Write a sequence for this structure.
């Protein structure tokens, strides 16, 4: 019996791999992508990067300006994430199967979160450009809307998984709705919720670089400015600063996760 199950899984895996390979080949044919040419260009790209794309003593003079723009990007990312987390918590409480007021209202809140989650932050930035123009506010709202959709989904699943048993116990004792929320749901879910917020901050710092290219603000715009002006040494310094900031934020968030989880 187990041999048949193993053989079936093996056949399904093989069929999936064959299907994936066929889809990949079909996509390469449709897009006229030459894989051999692509791999052959890698050595030339590395050679160009080593010859041109590295910081110099002259580029270090621009470091204070770069750090100022990096600070702007970090603050916008953190502010957008924390504000989105507050609204996401409210929507997740009303949308969770454990704490929803009624199924209809829960379905509406889930639907709203789904719409926001399935629109990429870059698409949000392009949409908001028509209203706010190229500014930090556009980047803020793009990150806010993207974070809101993702965190609402993550918070909802966290509440459903973590708080189910304790909510049922409080309901059995006749506790009110708000007592259940503040004495059971939030206390039991808070470590996971904080973990999701930290993860979203990391993600938004990466996304903010791309958003800056579109909104003309932050560290992304600074990189684009130097790169298009052929100041490759300064552009490479921007990349180094971004990587260092991301690694530092990731280290800090991992440390916080170890403490709270």
């Amino acid at each position: 019996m187990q041999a048949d199950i193993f053989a079936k899984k093996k056949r399904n895996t093989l069929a999936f791999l064959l299907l994936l390979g066929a889809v990949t080949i079909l996509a390469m044919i449709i897009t006229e992508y030459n894989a051999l040419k692509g791999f052959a260009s890698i050595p030339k790209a590395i050679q160009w990067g080593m010859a041109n794309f590295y910081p110099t003593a002259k580029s270090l003079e621009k470091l204070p300006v770069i750090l100022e723009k990096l600070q702007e990007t970090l603050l916008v990312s953190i502010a957008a994430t924390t504000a989105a987390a507050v609204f996401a918590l409210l929507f997740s409480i009303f949308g969770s199967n454990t704490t929803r007021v009624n199924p209809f209202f829960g379905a509406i809140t889930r639907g709203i979160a789904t719409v926001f989650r399935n629109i990429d932050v870059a698409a949000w930035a392009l949409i908001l450009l028509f209203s706010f123009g190229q500014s930090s506010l556009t980047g803020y709202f793009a990150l806010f809307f993207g974070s809101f959709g993702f965190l609402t989904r993550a918070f909802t699943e966290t509440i459903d998984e973590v708080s189910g048993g304790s909510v049922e116990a409080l309901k059995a004792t006749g506790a009110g709705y708000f007592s259940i929320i503040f004495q059971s749901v939030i206390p039991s879910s808070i470590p996971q919720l904080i973990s999701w917020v930290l993860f979203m901050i990391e993600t938004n710092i990466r996304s903010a670089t791309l958003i800056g290219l579109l909104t003309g603000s932050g560290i992304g715009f600074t990189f684009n400015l130097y790169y298009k002006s052929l100041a490759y040494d300064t552009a490479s310094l921007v990349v180094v600063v971004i990587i260092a900031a991301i690694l530092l934020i990731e280290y800090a968030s991992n440390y916080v996760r170890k403490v709270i989880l």
